[in-house]
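The freezer alarm interrupted the setup, so I double-checked each line after restarting. Inputs confirmed:
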Amino acid sequence: MSAKEMDETLAEFFRRTILKIPMTEMMTILKTWNFLSENQLQTVNFRQRKESIVQDLVLLCEENHASLNDAAHLDIIYTQFHRHQKIWDVFQMSKAPGDDIDLFDMEQFKSSFKKILQRALKNVTVSFRDAEENSVWIRIAWGTQYKKPNQYKPAYVVYYSQTPYAFTSSSRLKSNLPLLGQALTVASKHHQIVKMDLRSRYLDSLKAIVFKQYNQSFETHNCTTSLQEGSLGLDINMDSRIIHENKVEKERVQRVTQEIFGDYPQPRLEFAQYKLETKFKSDLNGGILAEREEPLRCLVKFSSPHLLEALKSLAPAGIADAPLSPLLTCIPNKGKNYFKIRDK
Amino acid sequence: MPAVVPSLVGTEDALLQQLADSMLKADCTSELKVHLARSLPLPCSVNRPRIDLIVFVVNLHSKLSLQSVEESLCHLDAAFFLGKVAFLATGAGRDSHCSIHRNTVVKLAHTYRSPLLFCDLEIEDFRAAMAQRLVRLLQICAGHVPGVSALNLLSLMRGSENPSLEDL
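Predicted 3D structure, all chains:
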């Protein structure tokens, strides 16, 4: 049986997908993919230039008659390893009151999800990969009635089947979002889907917040403790040659900070955004702005490599008073990092 | 001889703490204790050692730290300003983070006739060098160096380090 020539565009897609993989991760990812056999991998000279290695690997894929589905799987695995490269939104689904609690059937969900998208858009590539905790990673390459799917701008959905939550990578093709939401809702036998005001690169942190797992110790890729050396570890009992005038106050601050933030590492978020729409309030009579009927609009954004840890260290470092504003400290509890503040 | 005691006054606990640790590690022939306070006035009840030198620490990144120091200065006995007060400004190295202009602290130090030192306290080596310098200063202010008084030192330092604003 002669090896069929692989479709040009598919071969290119393989080439570009494999090229993206850093050499340090290449073997791990290929092994996870488990499409090329151990023997086949051994025939590749990994000491060549990367382009040549990739070329060899693509040839092997051709030999194995790799399909678009296989390529999509590789793409999913790459994304799972590099989940921080995407920004994730969080959606919450709900059942209608009085709906039966059906037993969840993963295969039925997948087939239903795929059918809904395919019925709406003739051209769409949908691929699945099961993951831990009854979750599934879904990759969707969008096309239209007349155009083939664009494999280079896929959307990802991570759905935890035992929960009403799904995480989606913000796709640039925003017009497909309603359809995606609908497919998820119907396929998982829910009634309604709502976008939460929560967004971050750190999928694991979003999970921890939404599943309320952050107040136990949990794994993050970069578990950064206090940014400032000894900031929260400012023990009150240090060198007895140091006399703290404000000892009582310091102890109070430590205590309050601990009550609010706890002892555990905070989930990782990069920003919190507050949209204010409030009327101007002033003690002075008859200021120009005081008579303004319309609310003032303003946007305040806090950014940090690790926002919650940074907030936690503010009071102990003497930069802010303790307790901090509840608008800042409620973020993990409320599962929000986007706020709209209006006059009551 | 009784211990020599500087008081480090500023809002940023972590920086003060680090500076205190560095000073305790520095060479000092007298016994050294370090007093830390957020602001003045100090609560009056406590039994406190005599303070030989007050260092007001201003973080150029924080308007709050400057404001707190300015308010504290009003509560300080005038006698201290005869050589027993110094200003230390930190954060000048990261210009983009500075919300206080250098000249503001220069003027402040000039107004109170006291020396102004610059040091990025976050950098360990700079902090260690500054700590050593402060310890030397401290020993003079405490009268532990024969022949040099705090006032002598003040006029010496004024000449070379802090040109008056008219010269700038």
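Quick read of the result. The helical segments of chain B are 13-25, 63-73, 102-111, 124-141, 150-161.
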